[in-house]
């Protein structure tokens, strides 16, 4: 029985080896590697809970085959910052009350970083479009949009790269 191919994924700056069959998604591989911050939601690309950055572009990891990510940089929400040194978006989500149950937050933050990588000074419409693939059942989105706007201002003032 063939258990797949051994690949190396670079996740949050660290190389991790994993054996994956051809049909294994990046979401499944990341969860198998212990990256539980990448949430398993709809598993069909509708909710955005599984969003990660691949070479600084936000993607749904449930729609991406793991073996296609061997030579790229993968960043999860944990790779953006931590409790001692949070990313400005992580701080803004907490400070402005954009986090409620927290299930969608990792994907929302990752999608917002993807937006700010492309457009450091996004309009309201840019934010709405960039986060349109992320579902939240708790917040009503207003505080999430406010947090992204706030983080963009903070990052611009600090000259920070997303």
Question: What structural keywords apply?
Answer:
five-stranded mixed sheet, DNA polymerase, domain 1, 2 domains, alpha+beta, 162 residues, single chain, globular, 5 helices, 33% helix, Ubiquitin-like (UB roll)
Number of domains: 2
Per CATH, the class of the largest domain reads Alpha Beta
Rg value: 16 Å
Major beta sheet, specifics? 5 strands, mixed
CATH architecture of the largest domain: Roll
Strands of the largest sheet, in order across it? Answer: 2-1-5-3-4
- Assembly state (oligomeric): single chain
Helix content: 25-40%
Question: Can you identify the CATH superfamily of the largest domain?
Answer: Beta-grasp domain
Give the structural class.
alpha+beta
Mean pLDDT: 95
How many strand units? 5
Instruction: State the helix count.
Output: 5
Poorly predicted tracts of residues: none
Shape, please? globular
Summarize the helix and strand pattern as letters.
EEHEEEHHHH
Explain this structure to me?
There is one protein chain. By secondary structure, the protein is of the alpha+beta class. The chain folds into 2 domains: 5-77, Ubiquitin-like (UB roll), CATH 3.10.20.30; 88-158, Orthogonal Bundle (DNA polymerase, domain 1). 33% of the residues lie in helices and 15% in strands. It has 5 helices and 5 strands, in the order ββαβββαααα. It has a 5-stranded mixed sheet, with helices on both faces. A hairpin with a 2-residue loop joins β1 and β2 (14-20). α2 packs across α5. The chain is globular and about 50 Å long. The N and C termini lie far apart (44 Å). The model has no long low-confidence stretch (mean pLDDT 95).
